[in-house]
Structures are given as structure tokens and as C-alpha cells.
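User: Teach me something about this protein's shape.
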Amino acid sequence: MLKGACHCGAVQITLQRTPRTITNCNCSICRRYGVLWAYYKSSSVGLKAQTADLASYSWGEKSIEFVRCAQCGCVVCWKPLGRTQADYRMGVNVRNFDPARLMGARLRRLDGASSWRFID
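Assistant: First, the predicted structure itself:
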């Protein structure tokens, strides 16, 4: 099990396994947030926080929301909006975890700014 948290500790994150790959996306928002994503089914991600400690942001087609700590501002994850399935795919910002625990993961570069293809 992998445990992480936002900077102030108000949001705790647990993952059932270390990611095999990590994605660095250059789309307009990921580039600004400076995040690195690992993708999981929602059932394998544990988020522990008070409701008041979470905030979210969505824009455009409103297909996903970015969740952050309302206290320190660290982006925690993104989740799809408008999905009815119980176990959806989500992105977890692995910058909230000890980098030493992520050393074995392959870093992928995603061209989210243009082609939506991996460029590594």
C-alpha cells in the first residue's frame, strides 16, 4: 500500500499498489498545475478528508473535475463527471507521494496540448 497526502495533511490518499507508469501531460491545465498522473480504478483509491477540506474545478465540457485541498491548494486527483458507472477510471497526482516510492515507475509524456498521443 502506498500512502500520500497534500502539503498540509488535510487530504490523505492511499493506493493499493505503486503505479507502473506515471504520465506527464502538457495540456493547458496539467502544465499549469505541475502534476504527474497515475491512473487507477476508483475502487483502489482511498481519499480521506473532511468535506470542507476539498474543492474542485471543472471547465469547458465539464467532463472531469480536478480535486484539490481547500486548505493548502495541492491538486489531489481528477475524476470524471456525469458517469453512472460505479468503478470509474481516475487520475491521482503522485506528486503527493514520496518520490523514492515511485522510482520504478515508467515516466510517459503525453501531448495533451495537441495530439493527445504519447510522445516518448
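Now, about its shape. The chain has a mean pLDDT of 96. Residues 2-109 form a domain with the Metal Binding Protein, Guanine Nucleotide Exchange Factor; Chain A fold (CATH 2.170.150.70). If you'd like, I can walk through any region in more detail.
User: That's plenty for now, thanks!
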